């Protein structure tokens, strides 16, 4: 009998510590919470008559006992195992195991964590036990693990940080952590196992933003743009956008997207953006500088198989590369300075939802995030193929930028939103449009840009 069906599998794991927490600067900085404050959760295995005879009690960070146990990196898994030897039937050993593996759909599990503790053995016991016997256990989770892989005729050992639990519905791959109590019996009797999954969440912290951006957050003042705060922004290469306005004339303009740095953003925080347009056609600039015309999305892609750890994903195939959109930016005209002829400057934000999972790179499975500036969409605008992209589709993104998501924010930094009232509500409408746009376009756009 398997106890994994006891707690519900919740795709939205309990959130990490709140963004902007004033806590220790090193991670994990949240293991100071004592074991006495952890929630105790209990699982049991019943015999054929419905009577429990194996119990597993474990203390975890879960908010309540009805969900899966939760642990962060370097946490110690502690609890007790109890066995009723009157029902054990020739038990030889009692073993507690912490197991973890990655499984692609249709393939066998690749185990990367296997920690075993012998709680009791008939070889070392002074006498045969009777009734209920209990043993405490304490196992500290490692921070990384070795994976043996074959490269040609040789075997190589690579070391990876432990990846987070990953159990989304319809996912092409899963990362599963579990606690297993095994009562091993004599050669002619079946071993009995009590199993429960648990959620594992590595904690990562965002890096501090520029001094000027920190000052703006503290004082509630406007963000300083890339021109006056070059340390606070990554200005992406300018792209030339060509198209036709109202089927009447061909126009072109230069578009430049800038992303706030460092390029690591905590869950539940906004990603500051700026976008500038330059061109000689004022009517076309006004048309494309409308906030509803701009499409910047946060896209997540999952790679399964031997290329999952590659920095360049150009070799990815559709059957092992999976892309989905998990956010869309909203823009508004910048209030910094008077508009100049032939130039439009907009500020923007993209909210990193708290429900997202932090990315990771692991053997045979990786999850990563990129920002992508898609082609403009506006009534009367018909885009041509992007400049310099021979044979490329007008539905491919103009530019992409890999980013990293973090569990918690930099110490002492509390990000704030600068979106004018009403723009958050428009976010969902823009997002839905962006989803449809990509679904009708090139689903594998990331393969044309890579991660080099």
From TrEMBL:
Residues 1-31 are annotated as: Disordered. InterPro entries: Arrestin-like_C. It comes from the Eukaryota. Gene3D superfamilies: 2.60.40.640. This is Arrestin-like N-terminal domain-containing protein. It comes from Polyporus arcularius HHB13444.
């Amino acid at each position: 009998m398997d106890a994994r069906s006891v707690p519900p599998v919740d795709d939205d794991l309990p959130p990490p510590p709140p963004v902007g927490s004033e806590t220790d600067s090193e991670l994990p900085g949240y293991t100071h919470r004592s074991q006495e404050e952890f929630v105790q959760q209990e699982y049991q295995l019943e015999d054929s008559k419905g009577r429990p005879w194996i119990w597993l009690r474990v203390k975890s960070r879960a908010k309540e006992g009805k969900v899966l146990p939760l642990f962060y990196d370097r946490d110690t898994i502690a609890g007790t195992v109890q066995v009723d030897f009157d029902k054990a039937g020739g038990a030889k050993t009692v073993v507690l195991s912490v197991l973890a593996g990655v499984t692609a759909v249709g393939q066998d599990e690749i185990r990367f964590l296997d920690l075993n503790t012998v709680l009791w053995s008939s070889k070392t016991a002074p006498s045969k036990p009777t009734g209920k016997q209990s043993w405490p256990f304490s196992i500290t989770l490692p921070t990384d693990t070795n994976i043996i892989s074959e490269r040609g005729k040789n075997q190589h050992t690579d070391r990876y940080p432990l990846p987070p639990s990953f159990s989304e519905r319809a996912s092409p791959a899963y990362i599963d952590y579990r606690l297993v109590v095994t009562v091993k019996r004599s050669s002619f009797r079946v071993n009995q196992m009590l199993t429960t999954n648990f959620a594992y969440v590595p904690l990562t912290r965002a890096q501090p933003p520029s001094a000027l951006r920190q000052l703006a957050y503290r004082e509630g003042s406007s963000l300083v743009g890339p021109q006056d705060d070059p340390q606070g922004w990554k200005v992406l290469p300018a792209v030339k956008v060509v198209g036709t306005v109202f089927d009447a004339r061909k126009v072109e303009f230069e578009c430049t997207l800038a992303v706030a740095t460092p390029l690591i953003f905590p869950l539940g925080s906004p990603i500051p953006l700026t976008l500038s347009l330059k061109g000689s056609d004022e009517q076309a600039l006004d048309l494309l500088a409308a906030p509803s015309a701009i499409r910047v999305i946060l896209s997540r892609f999952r790679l399964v198989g031997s290329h999952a750890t590659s920095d360049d994903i150009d070799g990815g195939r559709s059957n092992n590369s999976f892309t989905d959109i998990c956010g869309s930016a909203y823009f508004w005209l910048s209030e910094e300075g008077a508009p100049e002829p032939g130039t439009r400057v907009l500020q923007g934000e993209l909210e990193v939802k708290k429900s997202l999972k932090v990315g990771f790179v692991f053997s045979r499975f990786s999850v990563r995030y990129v920002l992508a500036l898609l082609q403009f969409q506006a009534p009367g605008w018909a885009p041509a193929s992007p400049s310099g992209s021979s044979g490329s589709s007008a539905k491919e993104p103009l530019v992409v930028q890999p980013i990293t998501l973090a569990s918690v924010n930099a110490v002492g930094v509390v990000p704030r939103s600068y979106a004018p009232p009403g723009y958050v509500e428009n976010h969902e409408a823009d997002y839905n449009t962006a989803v449809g746009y990509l679904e009708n376009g090139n689903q594998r756009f990331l393969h044309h840009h890579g991660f080099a």
